[in-house]
Write a structure and sequence with these properties.
It contains eleven helices and eleven strands. It has 326 residues and is an alpha/beta fold. The strands form two sheets. The chain has a seven-stranded mixed sheet with strand order 3-2-1-4-5-10-11, with helices on both faces. A four-stranded parallel sheet has the order 7-8-6-9, sandwiched between helices. The longest helix has 22 residues, at 143-164. Helix 5 packs across helix 6.
């Protein structure tokens, strides 16, 4: 537990996520309502090292809650893994009067926050990642918007796949975690859902299922494929050759990061941003905000990073039943 802060810096780091602006807005306005000053740090830790820092007012965060992306911009900064630059970052914070920092991002961003805390700067992490891969929380900023974006895209692909009697391989984001694939696969009624956690290269099972359903009169087929599994284009070629069903691969890519955040992402991000400031006002440091069992809670950053997270076992279980028919 450190001392209560007077000036808060806020930054976004790593991949952008819809709802980050709602969190920034909440940080700024909660801090000001508590009599604190706020400084925006552009482009994450890279911007901190370059002293790209400016004073923020309530007006600066007007009319941003509905916007995707982040008004503070974001970047990855490999340098910040080194002690030399962590020390420099802390010195820059002190130079600008910043004694507390809210870091909105994912695992890598939280490692940086923990290092800043070791250098005497109070830090609080807010989970901003569309991948839902922060183990200490049931919710991460941007996930809800990303899955709705992917679901709507798949619904549209279903229409054209039906018209052409095709199979569509739809690749969604999730390099190391399959939460987006699992949720969007269920929501879109996909015939097969491939995740990095559960798929082991058995494409013959997919081929057999497509053949069986085609015989039953099924005119279109949707396979949701996680980015970490990959090889969607090659998979489409193999399936078309084996089944005779025209098969196309569509990679949704970074459209899942953009767009107006959903109501849930706006509200939960706002609550997390406010919670982060409240923790700093209490003198807390090296903590990350999470949402668990219906409550916004906080955890030690290192303990949170040490936790592991798997796919929801029940959701994965029901996919086997929900995809047994056409």
């Amino acid at each position: 537990m450190g001392s209560a802060v007077k000036t808060i810096g806020v930054l976004t780091s790593g991949g952008d996520a819809p709802g980050m602006n709602a969190a920034i807005r909440a940080v700024v306005r909660t801090a000001i309502s508590n009599g604190l000053k706020v400084k925006g740090i552009r482009r994450g830790y890279a911007g901190l090292l370059e002293e790209d820092i400016y004073d923020m007012s309530s007006l600066d965060v007007s009319d941003i809650i509905q916007l995707g992306g982040t008004i503070l911009y974001t970047a990855r900064c490999l340098e910040f893994k080194e002690l030399e630059y962590q020390t420099k970052g802390a010195e820059i914070c002190r130079k600008h009067g910043i004694d507390g920092v809210v870091v909105i991002g994912g695992d890598g961003s939280f490692n940086g926050a923990s290092r800043l805390s070791e250098q005497g700067i109070n830090t609080i992490g807010v989970p901003g990642t569309i991948d839902l891969d922060i183990a200490c929380t049931e919710y991460t900023i941007g996930f809800d918007t990303a899955i709705n974006t992917a679901m709507e895209a798949i619904d549209r692909l279903r229409d054209t796949s039906e018209s052409h009697e095709r199979c569509s391989i739809v690749e969604v984001m999730g390099r190391t975690a399959g939460h987006i694939a699992l949720w969007t696969g269920i929501a879109s009624g996909a015939e097969y859902i491939l995740t990095t956690e559960e798929y082991h290269g058995d494409i013959q099972r997919i081929i057999t299922k497509i053949k069986d359903r085609h015989k039953l009169g099924k005119k279109n087929h949707i396979v949701v494929n996680a980015e970490g599994v990959g090889n969607s284009a090659e998979m489409a070629k193999v399936i078309e050759l084996a089944t005779g069903v025209e098969t196309r691969a569509t990679i949704l890519g970074h459209i899942q990061r953009g767009g107006n955040p959903t109501c849930k992402d706006r509200v939960y991000a706002s609550a997390m941003g406010a919670k982060a400031v409240e923790l700093l006002c209490e003198g807390a440091s090296n903590r990350v905000v999470g949402y668990t069992d219906g409550e916004f809670q906080d955890y030690d950053i290192q303990e949170a990073l040490a936790m592991s997270k798997s796919l929801d076992p029940y959701l994965f279980h029901i996919t086997k039943k929900l995809t047994t028919r056409g």
